[in-house]
Amino acid sequence: MKNNIRVQRAIKNITQAELADLIQVSRQTINTIESGKYVPSTVLALKMARVFDKPVEEIFELEDGD
Amino acid sequence: MKNNIRVQRAIKNITQAELADLIQVSRQTINTIESGKYVPSTVLALKMARVFDKPVEEIFELEDGD
DNA sequence: ACTAAATGTAAAGTATTTTTGATATAAATG
DNA sequence: CATTTATATCAAAAATACTTTACATTTAGT
């Protein structure tokens, strides 16, 4: 699973902390997801997609290992 | 989080066991997700979306509580 | 260079997801 | 009806997601 949350944040020009607030998780959760340390739940993925106004598939992408 | 996995399975005419095989999880995992007992990871959501050839948003939907 | 804001990281704990195995019920088919 | 196939459920363990607190590092602006 890779993601381009950093890019999407850049487009919207919001910080990790702001995104965390918007989807009601801790800042560290955003940070660790963003840096690929773990895969978020579908609820978080949908919330991010909603914030960024992009389909989930455009933010999260399956990789070979998955 | 609600989902319409059962409907999507019906459209493709596959069993829980077959879907489980296709996305490499146990049959129980499909069953419990399908019956709303828990929220799957984004990896599972993306895999299902791929199997059903539908965007994640069309299979999983956020609810008020989420 | 100094400062403040943003990001990275770590440890410890809680909560949730997923698996496995077993069993039960329901639905479909001969 | 009897048998097979599909779905539901349960309990316990393993794995993973998420929180909190706290501190270190990087980045950007002045």
UniProtKB/TrEMBL annotation, chains A, B:
Listed SUPFAM superfamilies: lambda repressor-like DNA-binding domains
Gene Ontology MF, one: DNA binding
Occurrences of domain HTH cro/C1-type (ranges): 5-59
Keywords: DNA-binding
Entry annotated with the keyword Repeat: no
Superkingdom as given in the UniProt entry: Bacteria
The keyword Metal-binding is assigned to this record: no
PANTHER family the record matches: HTH-TYPE TRANSCRIPTIONAL REGULATOR XRE, TRACRIPTIONAL REGULATORY PROTEIN-RELATED-RELATED
Name of the protein in its database record: Transcriptional regulator
Annotated source species: Pedobacter psychrodurus
